[in-house]
Backbone:
């Protein structure tokens, strides 16, 4: 009598393992996106702290942003290096930044990466609001909740 498995039995086991592996990979993809979103939110928390430090030093938030698409790492402040590191991390996560700042206020948002979420942007402003929103910042005169700053 032969001991061992038939070819059919081995193929069935391989098929079952393949199906289970594909299910695990799909579940891990969602977890990866959520982890990246959490990292982006942490990045904006750092930006909020840096914006307040810039305001303390210069009495203005204007240096927090350069244009509407990036943080103020090209500006001549004591914190431009830190802003550059945060901007690079946001780009490494394959997200984009929307950034508006003037002397009295700022509004900064990033695109979150988890597909299918109701509010795909995370926004911080000079009011101290940090919230997931349906749209990116539209300007420094409107904060994350749409109120005039």
Residues:
């Amino acid at each position: 009598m032969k001991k061992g498995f038939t070819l059919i039995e081995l193929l069935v086991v391989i098929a079952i393992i393949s199906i289970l592996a594909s299910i695990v990979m799909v579940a891990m993809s969602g977890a990866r996106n959520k982890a990246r979103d959490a990292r982006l939110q942490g990045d904006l928390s750092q930006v909020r702290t840096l914006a307040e430090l810039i305001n303390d030093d210069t009495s203005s938030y204007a240096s927090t942003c350069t244009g509407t698409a990036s943080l103020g790492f090209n500006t001549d402040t004591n914190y431009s290096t830190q802003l550059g590191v945060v901007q690079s991390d946001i780009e490494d996560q394959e997200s984009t930044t929307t950034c508006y700042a003037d002397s009295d206020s700022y509004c900064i948002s990033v695109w979150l990466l988890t597909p299918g979420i109701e509010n795909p942007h995370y926004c911080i402003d000079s009011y101290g609001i940090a919230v997931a929103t349906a749209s990116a910042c539209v300007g420094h005169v409107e904060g994350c909740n749409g109120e005039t700053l």
Remarks:
- Residues 10-133 form one domain.
- The radius of gyration is 23 Å.
- Helices lie at 7-58, 80-92.
